[in-house]
């Protein structure tokens, strides 16, 4: 039997109405939109992790463990869960690790890694007994149906910001960038419209083609002497010499377990736990909705399998020496390209393993080129909001808050928590307390406490 036939049988491609070419293309698309993490994660964590080898060498070590942890976690997602979701160290969680836990709280980086490992083990145990899946199924229906559109807006802000089409403004918070004079913004706009145009024409792989063409245009512009006005975003990134010795990072969490402040350690573990729990839940539901994977109740069938892959990824990542590994919302890019099975995730995992050999291989794709894919997918995900019953105010309010709060607080967790809290409160005001499960009230109280913990100065903010 040919390899293609074995893969088709192993991932049951026929039953999912897909084929080998589509799955491979979808995996490449997801990797291209996730690949920035191989460069960005080390740039954030190096502020907190001192291996004694210097910043340049430490960044290379972190790039290696970032790619390895992403590859391992995504491989588990592929072969165990058979879902087209990519995993890697999460943005926001790495900033919390570096700037709040290690920086502001003064927790040694080895101890912070120990908290990541403990969190991962807790997730494995809770997934084994079905507790994580049970809690996610308690999420109110309007919140589940709103998450897809909310994630779309979240992706849009990330993509537009990273392409400099939208920039910060002291008066209005956000405003239009210099799209007529900034070379990065100009290339981004051209690439964005090219990708949309290819998509409208029904071109298979439109996102990959758009990213590739935009990258080539950027490299050509750089070769002609065009300079980027943004110091950290060159038109044509260069590849530094790789370092593969990661021994100062691997197993460092064991040193962190040796001398603990029990209270501080518990608070750190709980915070990592809540943020990762909510972001994973939101991502699985949101990208599951984009792929048509959800059932009539808005739940992802066999959710315990992708949840286990996420838990294993977090545990392995902490052991290797990086911050919390989580499921990536960028997986929606591959799903929009037709990815429906774990074969998509397998391609993503293999790409991350290849990136280890060429660390940081992903830096060859300019940031602005990869992030136009997020804007394209964001537009496509907005249609998911049509499933919300907007005529019922007890559904409209929690769904609306989820859609609004998620992008404007730059947090998947905050958006979901706002919707979960609002649902039972609105039902109570409407005299429909009987529609609310006792567990949903418990979640609302728990997430209200989570808001207090995160914004009340106990741990600072990410």
From TrEMBL:
InterPro entries: Azg-like (IPR045018), Azg-like_bact_archaea (IPR026033), NCS2 (IPR006043)
Coiled-coil regions listed in the entry: none
Protein localization: Cell membrane
Organism annotation: Halarchaeum rubridurum
Transport among keywords: yes
Protein name (Swiss-Prot/TrEMBL): Uracil permease
Keywords associated with the record: Cell membrane, Membrane, Transmembrane, Transmembrane helix, Transport
Protein family membership: Belongs to the nucleobase:cation symporter-2 (NCS2) (TC 2.A.40) family. Azg-like subfamily.
Membrane-spanning ranges: 24-49, 61-80, 87-106, 112-131, 143-160, 180-200, 207-229, 343-362, 368-386, 398-426, 438-459
Gene Ontology molecular function, alphabetical: purine nucleobase transmembrane transporter activity
Primary localization: membrane
Pfam families per the UniProt record, alphabetical: Xan_ur_permease (PF00860)
Membrane topology listed for this record: Multi-pass membrane protein
GO cellular component, one term: plasma membrane
